[in-house]
Specification:
Blueprint: E1 12-13, E2 16-25, E3 28-35, E4 40-46, H1 55-69, E5 79-85, E6 88-94, E7 98-100, H2 101-105, H3 112-131, E8 134-135, E9 144-147, E10 152-154, E11 161-162, H4 196-199, H5 206-222, H6 232-241, H7 247-250, H8 256-265, H9 277-286, H10 292-301, H11 310-333, E12 344-348, E13 354-361, E14 367-374, E15 379-385, E16 392-393, E17 401-405, E18 411-416, E19 419-424, E20 431-435, E21 442-444, E22 449-452, E23 461-464, E24 471-472, E25 482-490, E26 496-503, E27 509-514, E28 520-524, E29 531-534, E30 538-543, E31 546-553, E32 558-567, E33 581-583, E34 588-592, E35 599-605, E36 610-613, E37 619-625, E38 631-637, E39 643-649, E40 655-657, E41 665-670, E42 676-681, E43 688-693, E44 701-704, E45 710-715, E46 721-728, E47 732-739, E48 747-750, E49 756-761, E50 767-772, E51 779-784, E52 792-793, E53 800-804, E54 810-814, E55 819-826, E56 833-834, E57 838-842, E58 855-857, E59 863-869, E60 878-882
Helix pairs in contact: 3-5, 3-9, 5-8, 8-10, 9-10, 10-11
Length: about 900
């Protein structure tokens, strides 16, 4: 027997202080501990020091940490850290409160609805793991934890195996530089939930987890194990040779479709099971009662390939006829306007290894265009006919956002690389129409004009679909604290349009205006939502997380009746407030529960190793270190959708709000002595520059008031100048300088027919590094200051978001392929010399449509604080509803 090293309350393992012991198992003991740096309770799992001499057990323990830390999903236990203490390895995880599924079952069955709910959460977690090539291999009720609020978490990836992409031979692969012996002949897993291939000691893939899940699902529904013998040998024999008793024998109320789904999971050969956890999730969702049509479809797809009884054959025939009927009715729907009295619902999944962002249904209701984003953050437009199961990518639409259709459903407008563009939906070249630096939506009318929002801080502009110089359509009203007009949507007459106003309480909401300027008034006091019109006469908009509809007379421009809910848990982008729904004029509605804009502040060293998380996933961007390196300022969105400046203490992890007004406060920069923070705010209409004591005491002071929206970028080391960006529709993004002495009259430093952004003073104040797209590709340049001498290009493969090392001897930036780059600099004298850029590591950051950085670097240049994207949207489908008005309350 191996003796476990026990820890008393108060024992410190690094920055973790043990509070009490909360459990133990074959892989070690678990303690409640306190993370003294971030001020949070965690679970600390410790392997006995004597086990560190057991190479296999130690590798399994390390593998658990490596596998689990690679995953970021709400249904998988989060791993925060790993380390050793007196020779004992340990792993630090999130602390869960609740009970294991084993404790929840206690030999009894669960209601069918609750079983499906728990099952869906498990397969969503498995799908996320399998996408990364990680197989659990020890799935059982003991490794599924149900929190007090009903969330299911998958625990213990201690037996997880990382498979190679496309590894048809199921060969053993390494988990980051580590190899675990799983050669044929070795039995890994827990008897009773093993797959047949595990029992035989053969190599396994993701379908082994599907078998184990089937055994768990069987137990939840029946209250007894699917395979259970008097001994381990008898149990293993049953797994290989026997089928469990029919579920209907123990519970006549179990759905036959659900029973067939369980049986398919428990097929002896992997080829006869579900092909993926995503397919299994789809079938389970269809059985959750959301729609009869989906349930019938899933019932057919879930039939097992084994021999069926007469009753099963009859049920299969009925299901097949139901599916055939649904296909025929769907085809008829796309050939004429729907006259059915019932809505038809079905989900659409993203292309493999991508996730959805924004999307739009064509006006004729026949096609869906969507933005698919891969794990690196690269995006592309895809088009899918709704009567097809496949989508096609549109080449030339890289970095696309916010697509919208022409009224005849032939063309797609979209934004990419700071431009408004269009492309024919079926084929054709991409055409650039005009500048749109950081866009907030567009709409196309039948007279050949596009109305769009070129930046988050401008009124609406209009431009011909042939391209040209855009002209302003609306005008911001500073007296009413209007900060921006965004997300326009043409009404059927093509002369009136809806749009959203962002600003103070007296102005925010949904408005209607006309192209001739004779009409402009507020319809709804609903903040932070896009709006759409749908025939025969409704406005659709988001209220909190619910998609609402209200009757609207387009000819009179008047609302009537009360708003009513159409869909729950509709997602949105927390940075731009774009709501993820779209509607055609023929009764097709699409919506998604996904959300984008969330980031995770992550420490990364120069080798690319993640060294910890600073806070929970939120909408945090533009981190900025205080000069003493003890705090970081960020701008972020709270739970109410308000964007403000926040401060985080690096030692304790404490988070405090710095600004509190109703406006949007962003772009924090520190004064060189750390006493003040400057930022941009739209609290009085156009964005002006303010400063406030870094202690949080006192009122904000207005630094610069201008008609041009302004955003601070950097504060010179001598405290005399502030660099800031202004947006101009003619010269796009420009860089200006605000002197903090004398007459304090600002002057332009970079003002050309290009976007100049992300400017930073060198530590000695003699140079300014910045990004410009003057060559057609964003590159990093350096220019002397205060005299604008000749510029020097530093980057070679594109460049965005830059930072200097505190001694000025190194410059960091993000390349076009999202690699962190480092360049050695010699600039102490009157000349400037730059070395060859070197790649440090890959990043997972948002698309480059921001005028400020996504990272900050410590003074010594050894660690980076990166606003990494959070990929939870990847597994969220788009829900399509045909004839959605059939569900409208009469």
């Amino acid at each position: 027997m191996v003796k476990q090293m026990s820890f008393d309350a108060g024992t410190k393992l690094g920055r973790y202080e043990v509070r009490s012991k909360i459990g133990e198992g074959g892989m070690g003991e678990v303690y409640l501990a306190r993370d003294t740096q971030l001020g949070r309770d965690v679970a600390l799992k410790v392997l006995p020091s004597s086990y560190s001499d057991d190479r296999e057990r130690l590798q399994r323990f390390e593998q658990e940490a490596c596998a689990a830390s690679a995953l970021n999903h709400p249904n998988i236990l989060s791993v925060f850290d790993v380390g050793t203490h007196d020779g004992s390895p340990y792993v630090v995880c999130e602390l869960l409160k609740g009970q294991t599924l084993r404790q929840r079952l206690s030999g009894t069955s669960l209601p069918q609805r609750k079983t499906i709910d728990y099952g869906l959460q498990v397969v969503h977690g498995l799908a996320a793991a399998h996408e990364k090539g990680i197989v659990h291999r020890d799935l059982k009720p003991d490794n599924l934890f149900i929190t007090n609020d009903g969330r299911v978490k998958i625990l213990d990836f201690g037996l997880a195996k990382l498979t190679g992409a496309g590894d048809t031979q199921l060969s053993q692969t390494s988990i980051p530089t580590r190899r675990v012996d799983t050669d044929p002949g070795k039995v890994m897993g827990t008897v009773g939930y093993m797959s047949p291939e595990q029992v035989k000691g053969r190599s396994v893939d993701h379908r082994s987890d599907i078998f184990s899940f089937g055994a768990i699902l069987y137990e939840m529904l029946s209250g007894r194990r699917a395979f259970h013998g008097e001994s381990a040998a008898e149990t293993m024999s049953a797994i290989l040779k026997e089928d469990p008793p029919d579920l209907s024998e123990t519970n006549q109320r179990i759905s036959p479709s659900l029973e067939r789904l369980v049986n398919r999971c428990l097929e002896k050969t992997p080829e006869q099971r579900f092909h993926s956890a995503s397919d299994l999730a789809f079938a389970l969702e269809a059985l959750s009662g959301s729609s009869p049509t989906s349930a019938q479809t899933a019932a057919l797809s879930s039939l097992t390939k084994r021999r069926m009884t007469r009753r099963e054959l009859i049920l299969a025939s009925v299901a097949a006829l139901a599916v055939l009927f649904a296909v025929v009715m769907t085809a008829l729907y796309f050939r004429r306007a729907p006259t059915e009295e019932h809505a038809v619902r079905f989900p659409i999944s993203p292309p493999e290894k991508t996730g959805f962002s924004s999307f739009a249904v064509s006006p004729d209701g026949l096609r869906l265009v969507f933005v698919a984003i891969d794990a690196s953050g690269k995006s592309l437009l895809w088009v899918r006919p709704l009567d097809s199961i496949t989508a096609q990518p549109l080449p030339g639409t890289e970095e696309a956002t916010s697509p919208f259709w022409s009224p005849d459903s032939r063309f797609i407008g979209f934004f990419a690389t700071g431009k408004l563009k269009k492309i024919e939906a079926t084929s054709g070249a991409v055409q650039t129409l005009c500048n749109a630096v950081v866009p907030r939506g567009g709409t196309w009318n039948r007279d050949g004009f596009i109305v769009f929002a070129p930046t988050p801080n401008d009124p609406l502009y209009q431009v011909s679909v042939a391209g040209g110089e855009p002209t302003p359509l609306t005008k911001l009203d500073p007296s009413r604290q209007e900060a921006s007009h965004r997300w326009p949507y043409f009404l059927p007459d093509g002369r009136h349009l809806l749009y959203s106003v962002n600003g103070g309480p007296q102005s925010q909401g949904i408005y209607v205006t006309s192209l001739d300027g004779k009409e402009n008034r507020r319809l709804l006091n609903t903040p932070n939502s896009i709006v759409a019109y749908a025939a025969p006469g409704y406005l659709l908009f988001r209220r909190e997380s619910t998609l609402m509809a209200q009757a609207f007379h387009a000819d009179k421009l008047q609302l009537s009746g009360e708003p009513f809910p159409v869909a729950e848990q509709v997602g949105y982008d927390v940075a731009s407030f774009q709501t993820f729904f779209s509607v055609s004029q023929t009764g097709v509605l699409a919506y998604s529960s996904g959300s984008t804009g969330k980031t995770q502040l992550t420490w990364i060293d120069r080798a690319g190793k993640e060294a910890g998380l600073l806070d929970q996933p939120r909408s945090y961007i533009r981190p900025s270190f205080s000069p003493d390196g003890k705090r970081v300022a960020v701008d972020g969105v709270d739970s109410q959708g308000n964007r403000d400046i926040w401060l985080i203490e690096l030692a304790s992890g404490n988070l405090t709000r710095f600004t509190f007004d109703s406006g949007t406060d962003i772009f924090p920069i520190w004064s060189p002595d750390g006493s003040s923070i400057a930022f941009s705010s739209d609290r009085q209409g156009p964005r002006n520059l303010y400063q406030k004591s870094a202690s949080g005491a006192g009122k904000e002071e207005l630094l610069l008031k201008t008609d041009l929206n302004s955003f601070p970028l950097d504060w010179s080391a001598d405290g005399r100048f502030i660099l800031y960006t202004v947006t101009d529709t003619k010269t796009k993004l420009d860089t200006w300088v605000l002197p903090l002495f004398g007459d304090q009259k600002p002057f332009p430093f970079l003002q050309a027919e290009a976007n100049e952004r992300s400017a930073r003073f060198s530590p000695n104040g003699r140079w300014i590094a910045y990004t410009s797209d003057e060559s057609g590709l964003n590159q990093i340049y350096v220019q002397s200051f205060p005299d604008s001498g000749g510029k020097r290009q530093v980057s070679t493969n594109g460049g965005y978001h830059l930072a200097w090392r505190s001694d000025g001897k190194e410059l960091f930036y993000i390349a076009s392929d999202k690699k962190m780059m480092a360049v050695e600099i010699k600039a102490d004298g009157p000349t400037f010399e730059a070395g060859t850029p070197k790649a440090l590591f890959d990043l997972r950051v948002p698309s480059f449509n921001s005028a400020q950085g996504q990272f900050a670097v410590t003074a010594d240049g050894q660690k980076f604080l990166v606003a990494n994207t959070v990929g939870e949207i990847i597994s969220v489908p788009i829900n399509v509803v045909l004839n959605w008005t059939a569900d409208v309350p009469r």
